[in-house]
Amino acid sequence: MKGLIIDFGGVLSTPFEDSAKAFCKREGIEPNALTNALKTNAALVSDLERGATTQQHFNEVIGLQLKLFPDDLVERITRGIALREDVVRAVHNTRAKAVVLTNSLGSEPFDLYERFDLDMDVIASDRYRMRKPEPEIYALAAATIKTDPKDCLYVDDSAKFLEPASALGMTTVLATSPEVTIKALAEYF
Fold this sequence. Notes:
This protein has about 190 residues and is of the alpha/beta class. The chain has helices spanning about 10, 15-25, 35-40, 40-50, 55-65, 75-80, 85-95, 125-130, 135-145, 160-165, 180-189; strands spanning about 5, 95-100, 120-125, 150-155, 170-175. It has a five-stranded parallel β-sheet with strand order 3-2-1-4-5, sandwiched between helices. The mean pLDDT is about 95.
């Protein structure tokens, strides 16, 4: 492999679901309230990931549903996300051309990825008006690191996002744990 395309949430970082539960606890709401609100508003989430709606609009809709103050809601929701330093170190140890490919929760006014020193490009879906599993975003990731998709390893913790990468010729790994990811990186690079 010459190139590495890797997901952020749940692979390079702790899972979004953990941060969502911590958010609910901090805000004093039911443990699954946020998850349920996101499922109820799946089209809104998709629009936010694609950059077709604003973070402010998302904050207002979800805040209203949860009966919470909407300002800085995305920042509050993602506050519990932390880097998995061992995985980040393993990525850097590959010395491969690497890029992060992530379905984001918008970039303005709050950009989650600015909090972290990843030392690689981040393709945040909202900035490109497309999202996983759209094949074009995988092709964009390979082009960003100037590597043929057939020479790329794609790592994600969601099986549904592996198929489009595989269809482009990428080798894929389902990241079920940090250990699985680290082992795969060592094997392929």
